[in-house]
């Protein structure tokens, strides 16, 4: 299931999970449990370093808010024995926070928090590893939307990325494990729905495209940067607006300050749509759509043009 690839500039990533045909909300569930929280590192120096890195960031960028995030702790994938049975993914999530993310994954010594292991979850058990999200948004004129991150963001300023952010525990009433007293099944259902609701919100807030112009998201996989081992859940969304219409809406996007420009690019080869590429990948006739779309994640391009972005594929 795991696949490694890379982008220009040495920004390698791993595909932890690839679902090129896409999974609907009914095919994705969540197990939310403190068993998937970060395990403190046995080295007290590394644990103390988390607070020191955070304090230094506060001095440079005051004030910082230590918000809560869902922590990625792995997944199970069930294809079933019955050919008519739909595949199902169960995401294993705990809780973490921005301070621990800054102090582990974003620390200059982030590699020291890793455990030598072929198992990704064991390797990253001492890192914060908040689960981010990203959307591959296809417009009605068959373009893919990417944003150039502004210099005001804390992670990879100036890079090109898909619209996205983080699912928010607070949006489903979760502040801590102790502060959520509903039955496990109800809690897990709410967290699972947040995975899909949050990515729609991110696209609306970052691009300006109205929610009623977007299709229901489908889950297409999880990537992990080799640099800082940050996991990202990806979704595919269709937009019934043309790219030039979204460009006009982008100027008044709620979170437009997080980026400096929106680009609509023809990233897919042979003029195919994303859906067509997914079908060809499933049937074994075409290139991997997942490999194509991941290559736009965090690309540092010399110019924000379709030609420049396309040349990196």
Topology (elements, then pairings):
Blueprint: E1 3-6, E2 12-23, E3 28-32, H1 44-60, E4 68-78, E5 88-97, H2 98-103, H3 120-123, E6 132-138, E7 144-149, E8 160-161, E9 164-165, H4 184-207, E10 218-225, E11 231-238, H5 243-250, E12 259-265, H6 274-283, H7 289-294, H8 306-310
Parallel strand pairs: 3-5, 6-11
Antiparallel strand pairs: 1-2, 2-10, 4-5, 6-9, 7-8, 7-12, 10-11
Plain-language structure description:
By secondary structure, the chain is of the alpha+beta class. Helices cover 26% and strands 26% of the residues. The chain contains eight helices and twelve strands. It has helices at 44-60, 98-103, 120-123, 184-207, 243-250, 274-283, 289-294, 306-310, and strands at residues 3-6, 12-23, 28-32, 68-78, 88-97, 132-138, 144-149, 160-161, 164-165, 218-225, 231-238, 259-265. Strand 1 (3-6) and strand 2 (12-23) form a beta hairpin.
Distance between the termini: 22 Å
Give the proportion of residues in helices.
Answer: 25-40%
Rg from C-alpha positions?
19 Å
Largest sheet: 6 strands, mixed
Low-confidence stretches: 5-10, 276-313
């Amino acid at each position: 299931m795991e696949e490694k690839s890379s982008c220009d500039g040495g920004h390698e990533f791993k595909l932890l999970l690839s679902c090129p045909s896409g999974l609907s909300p009914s095919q994705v569930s969540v197990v939310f449990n403190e068993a998937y929280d970060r395990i403190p590192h046995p080295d007290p120096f590394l644990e103390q370093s988390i607070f020191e890195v955070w304090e230094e960031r506060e001095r440079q960028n005051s004030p910082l808010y230590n918000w809560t995030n869902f922590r990625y702790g792995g997944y199970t994938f069930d294809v079933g024995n019955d050919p008519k049975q739909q595949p199902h993914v169960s995401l294993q999530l705990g809780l973490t926070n921005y301070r621990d993310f800054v102090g582990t994954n974003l620390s200059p010594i982030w590699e020291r928090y890793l455990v030598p292991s072929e198992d990704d979850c064991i390797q990253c058990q001492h890192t914060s590893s908040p689960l981010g999200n990203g959307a591959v948004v296809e417009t009605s004129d068959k373009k893919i939307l990417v944003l150039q991150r502004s210099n005001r963001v804390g992670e990879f300023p100036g890079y090109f990325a898909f619209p996205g952010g983080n699912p928010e525990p607070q949006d489903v009433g979760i502040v801590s494990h102790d502060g959520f007293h509903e039955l496990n099944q109800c809690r897990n259902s709410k967290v699972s729905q947040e995975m899909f609701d949050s990515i729609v919100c991110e696209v609306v807030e970052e691009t300006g495209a109205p929610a009623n112009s977007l299709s229901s998201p489908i889950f297409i996989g999880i990537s992990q940067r080799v640099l800082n081992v940050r996991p990202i859940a990806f979704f595919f969304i269709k937009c019934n607006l043309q790219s030039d219409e979204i460009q006009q809406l982008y100027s008044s996007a709620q979170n437009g300050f997080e980026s400096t420009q929106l680009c609509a690019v023809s990233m897919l080869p042979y003029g195919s749509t994303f859906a067509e590429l997914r079908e060809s990948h499933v049937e074994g006739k075409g290139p991997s759509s997942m490999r194509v779309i991941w290559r736009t994640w965090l690309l540092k391009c010399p110019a924000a043009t379709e030609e420049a972005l396309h040349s990196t594929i």
